Amino acid sequence: MNRLVVFCVAALVSGFSLSACTNSKRIDPAVEIAQAPNPESLAAFDGNTRTPIGWDEVLKRVANANAVFVGETHDDASAHRVEHALVNAFLAAHPKAAVSLEMLERNEQDAVNLYLSDSSTLEVFLATTKSRDWAGENTWIPWYQPMIDSARISGAQVIAANAPRKYVSIALREGYEPLRALPADERLLFEIDEEITRDGDWNRLRDLMVEMHKERAEKDRAEKGETGPLEPSDQDVDCAHRSQRVWDRTMGMSAANTFAQKTAVIHVAGGFHLEQRLGTVAQFSRVCPDAKILVISLQPSASAEIEEKEIKGADIVIHTKSLLRPAQK
């Protein structure tokens, strides 16, 4: 699901089981992505007009932007095939661009650079970053590695954009003060948003946590005949929000620091990080207001029609499981 990582943070702060944060057994990811439809055959929509657009128009908009944000559902193999095509199109238009990834953390940048320069092997890279099973067993090589290899062939950068989870956990459990007290070399591995408030990000995270509380209450009622609280406390939301903001601020600034070097950037992340142009997009645009931003949402839908709830501020919405209707070909 788009909200998997955020769900795990919210589950931690709410005291819920983390069983929903793990990936269940599935078919071979390499087979799954090979069987996914060609991206050009999928239904795509303009997020502003809600009208269908063709794949050529998608690629044109990707080429015209210099900061593209792609929101995936981590366990959707079809979305990863679309991402490969989008990254290749972006690199064709901006050969010396950067591919920025949520899936790699800042402390792994040296391992990324060694691989890109042919100074280490794929196996060493996977072992160092512990990425092999990032979105489920054996998912990295067929789902994420092609984007890195496209960058290597193009001579583009790959940005390990995210904050290491240990710092996100500290923000969740203890707040920002322990993070501020860390040595300077560690402070380079994550970002703190000193202007954090109970903003739109806070509200959407609260909505998610309310949904989780209600689902838990229904389950408890069915299994135990009793229920817990139907809503999280504001303090619980604050904890989840400040940890989520470390992720989003770090990713947004990783992309922004690259963009500041006159380098076009395409950033791939879970969809929740980009919804309503909040999260990572908001952090990036705060320091790069002149960037030509394009937000693409990859929805695991089999429908040939777009629903209003899918748009959430995206410029383009692509249904990863539905083929174009004959009239759109």
How do you describe this structure in short?
With 329 residues, the protein is of the alpha/beta class. Helix content is 46%, strand content 15%. The protein has helices at residues 4-14, 29-34, 55-64, 77-93, 109-116, 122-129, 140-143, 145-154, 165-174, 177-180, 184-187, 200-224, 234-259, 279-287; strands at 42-46, 52-53, 67-72, 98-105, 157-162, 265-270, 293-299, 316-323.
C-alpha geometry? globular
CATH domain class name? Alpha Beta
User: What is the domain tally?
Assistant: 1
Tell me the helix content: 40-55%
Evaluate the radius of gyration.
20 Å
Largest sheet descriptor: 8 strands, mixed
Our measurement of the CA-to-CA distance between the termini, rounded to an integer number of angstroms, reads 29 Å
Give the low-confidence spans. Answer: 1-5, 12-20
Order of helices and strands: HHEEHEHEHHHHEHHHHHEHEE
**Total strands:** 8
Major beta sheet, strand line-up: 2-1-8-7-3-6-4-5
Q: What quaternary form is this?
A: single chain
Strand proportion, as a percent range, falls in 5-15%
Task: Look at the helices and sheets and give the structural class.
Answer: alpha/beta
Mean pLDDT across every amino acid position: 91
The CATH level-2 architecture is identified as 3-Layer(aba) Sandwich
User: What is the CATH topology classification name?
Assistant: Rossmann fold
Number of helical segments? 14
